[in-house]
What we know:
Layout: E1 15-17, E2 20-22, E3 29-33, H1 40-57, E4 60-64, H2 83-97, E5 101-104, H3 111-117, E6 120-123, H4 131-139, E7 143-147, H5 157-166, E8 172-176, E9 179-180, E10 186-187, H6 191-196, E11 202-205, E12 211-212, E13 221-222, H7 227-237, E14 241-247, E15 261-262, H8 266-278
Parallel strand pairs: 3-4, 3-14, 4-5, 5-6, 6-7, 7-8, 8-11, 11-14, 14-15
Antiparallel strand pairs: 1-2, 9-10, 12-13
Helix pairs in contact: 4-5, 7-8
Amino acid sequence: MSAPENTRTEPVPPSVVGNYRIGPGEPLALIAGPCVIENLDLTRRIAERLVVTCRELGINLIFKASYDKANRTSVSGYRGVGQEAGLEVLRRIRDEFRVPVTTDVHETIQVAAVADVCELLQIPAFLARQTDLLMAAAATGRAVNVKKGQFMAPEDMRHVRDKLLAGGCKDVLLTERGTFFGYGRLVNDFTGLAVMRQFAPVVYDATHSVQRPSGMGSSTGGNREYVAPLARAAIAFGIDALFLETHPNPDQSPSDGPNMVPLSELPQLLDKLLAIRQI
């Protein structure tokens, strides 16, 4: 495999999210939470468990939940509680637990309101090449995490980073979440982590990487039994942050249930991943 352009011989500098530094040599960061906000009580219970677990393990938690799932397979799929209600939930989680929060932005008109609450703005994979959206997110001064499009090569994420830098963003994260392999399946090329890590600190999304797009007909399926082995492989290969979606009962989640890690199983998984990282 030929080396990509702009090959680095030294690690990229860390990116800053809230009070965290994310990058080579820094503590592992975890971006985690439910796929979609259902209500305040459930979101708070998930956040509380994550905060306790991450503090015990020395992991820097960024709490994630979406207020609008704008790219559901079917028009009848549950999208969330909406921007105003969802951002209020995230604000309360941020203030009560004193952790950075993040959520998706799908349109430029959403960016300012989200940046008022969230320390990290997340650009969905399907929108990774949308220049206006990237520029609007960069202009907020917030850190920006872009998920690599399922249709993109890892080398292409250099251009995504360059757009953000040109727009004034100083703190960039790039996330691997699988690549289309035919119809209805994703695969992971772990060499892509090393490629993207030349451009910015890298996040591995272990739960969306096991999706089966439209695998359940009118909704996306997945194979959560592969989350743990893929996460172990990514940690061993070298990443700066891990992305996981979790729920007390994933099979009852209105979005991405087949991919999510049961909340009760997360502490044991994270403990094993830290052991691998220390080695």
